Amino acid sequence: MAKSLKSFRFRSDENLVGDATNIFDQLGISLDAAVSMFLRQTVLKKGLPLQLTIAQEENPPIKQTSPSIKEKEVEIKPTREMQSAEDELYEKQSGDIERLDALCADFEQKIATLNVDADFVVDSVSFAVNSENADEKAQARKEVIEARANFGERILSVSSVISDSVTQFQGETRPLAEHLLKKFLSRLNALSSNIAERLTDLEQKLAPKESTEEKIEIAKEKVEEKVEEKVEEKVEIDEESKRIDEEEAEEKRREAELEIAERTEQKLGQIKAECEEKLNALSAQFGVDDSEKKELFEKISAEFDKANANFVAQLSELRNASNEDFEAKTAQIEESTKSLAQKIEQTLENAQTTFEEKTRAEEERAKKIAEDEEKKKAELAAYIAEDTREKTRRRRGKEKGRTRRVYRGGQPQTRGRGGDGST
Description:
By secondary structure, this protein is mostly helical.
């Protein structure tokens, strides 16, 4: 059920009211809610919920009351809308505000208890500071050490509770809860430092006084500790230098590996380009047909595939090799590249020799065919000549048997075989 509200007025400086209202807006609460919280805290604490003090300053500023400062009369009178808003606010946040008030009161009590307990511990063992009884001092020192550990645990527990309490509040109450609990944490940290300082000082005062020999021994131990610290520092510096050197060496090695890989890939590409150029030149020079060119290209491609697989394996071995074997593995990769170039060169030379021998054989075969043709032509010509001569001889032999005219004394004479003109 909504609580009944009563309106009232109060007079205050107009600028002060404006500044306060801006702050309340940032905290997510209204001026009315802030005044209500102030009144509730007054009731809970049975007095003003704040300390009225004057800050001690070396040169405090002198404030002069100016007649121009206006006082503003603020009337807190619930209108119908304000009444509805306040009803809704109390419905939603009255439980959160009451729980926040209870938490603040509880934390205030816990901090006060810690402070009282610390004063009690200090007062209870302070008598032993000037005591000549070593056992009393030892017992008091033991109690101080135990109290310091106990206070540390208690302060840590309270700090955790304060930090976890913020999550209990949501909506418009959350900013106010964060603001208040943050102040409690700050006070708790200051109290923790104060208690630790007081107990540590008390523990040192209760510590047994060392004799001259003990002081010398302690001084020696401190010197030895400093020497050990210097040695450890030197070792750390050496280790750091070694680590930096190793990282630089590792970086240089990675750069070398990349350089070797790029150089080898470029070399393989160069060998392949030169191989294709020579192969095309051989094809153009000797008129290699497509089948022979394809066979030779497949043979060279197989060499390249084998070389690439070998290069990948060698590069993997190079990455896993020790620094001592790095140079040897690098030389092995370079040697493999040179070997591939030599194999490709030898393959091309063999192919060129094969093409040259094949060309010479074809030329000799063509020459022999030409010679056979010439021989046949010569034989045919000789046969024709001989046949012509034979025909000529036969024709002439026939002509000898015919009658011939012989001119004697201007008259033709007929001479036969008998010499008398008879045939």
